[in-house]
Amino acid sequence: MKKLLSVRHLKKYFPLSGNGIFRSNVRFLRANDDISLDIYAGETFGLVGESGCGKSTFGRVILQLLPQTAGSTVYYGRDENGIDLSKLSPAEMRPLRQDLQIIFQDPYSSLNPRMTVGQILEEGPLTHGMYRRGDPALREHILRVTEECGLQEFMLSRYPHQFSGGQRQRISIARSLAVRPKFIVCDECVSALDVSIQSQILNLLQDLKERERLTYLFISHNLSVVRYLSDRIGVMYLGKMVEVAPTDLLFAHPAHPYTAALLSAVPTTEPESDTSRKEILSGGNLPDPADPPDGCPFHPRCPQACDRCRREKPLLLETASGHFAACHFPLPQ
Ligand SMILES: Nc1ncnc2c1ncn2[C@@H]1O[C@H](COP(=O)(O)OP(=O)(O)OP(=O)(O)O)[C@@H](O)[C@H]1O
Ligand code: SF4
Ligand SMILES: [Mg+2]
Predict the structure, then answer these.
(1) Domains in the chain and their CATH numbers?
(2) Does pLDDT of 53 surpass 60?
């Protein structure tokens, strides 16, 4: 499979305010701490983990919507030798924005209320010089995208507030799709919707992916949703990637104790589901990301933790073909 993005040693540190006047005293919140990951063309890579573990930060940093503190993010969609997005100026990044889109959770605040749906959809293609204003081909293009996203022509002259949440999310998707992107970060893009509407939007994303040969980074705290769409899944904990595996393998044989705990917290009808693992996460003792524990970041909550775990940081290593885990004692496969 061809790589579309190759991320190496990506760090995103946010400075914490109120730490004295000396630069050396400034503390940092390590929202993303040394993440390396390849995303392949045509795949849906799911990203899961508890609130605050750094998923949205990662999605924004790889698109350079937030500057990357360290590391590289190489994009192969334009040039087979790759372009390191982290080295580009905003002006150099601008044309690449056409390829790299994001869909947010909240379709209410992410659409300009003063623009009609038609104007919202035309904006990207005009900005990226795909068409000139008033060009009949632009109108045709917008109508095609409208139809692809399950919207109707009469909707183009209306305003976002005249639509339901599900329809607004279709408009957000259509807006991203109108520039014919290659890669889309979907950040909790169905979380705000009713369950019945969620599945319609997920099916739409799946259809569009196949039709347009898109690649997704699909971020969600909802494991069932991620399982449904993703080819591979990455699990984050305190700013680090702790496990990466093909979806079926991750669900059948999690290698990292944290992943096992996350999976056991998914609501199930099975009476014998593992309650001791569930308690690991319900304990609520998530460490402060500004002051992460030494050694393995999961050690204060891990039922298997030993001395080595408290001292030595585990690296993300391949435990089986295509299955990576950052744990000194991965669970038996
Ligand atoms: N602009 C910012 N300035 C300072 N800290 C930030 C900023 N954005 C995020 N953070 C912090 O970085 C950490 C990761 O946040 P992020 O939003 O990436 O998490 P998340 O996994 O997307 O969480 P959620 O599931 O709640 O959306 C959190 O501790 C958060 O408070
Ligand atoms: S390294 Fe140790 S503490 Fe960390 S997840 Fe593995 S067993 Fe648990
Ligand atoms: Mg988030």
Answers:
(1) 3-325 (3.40.50.300)
(2) yes
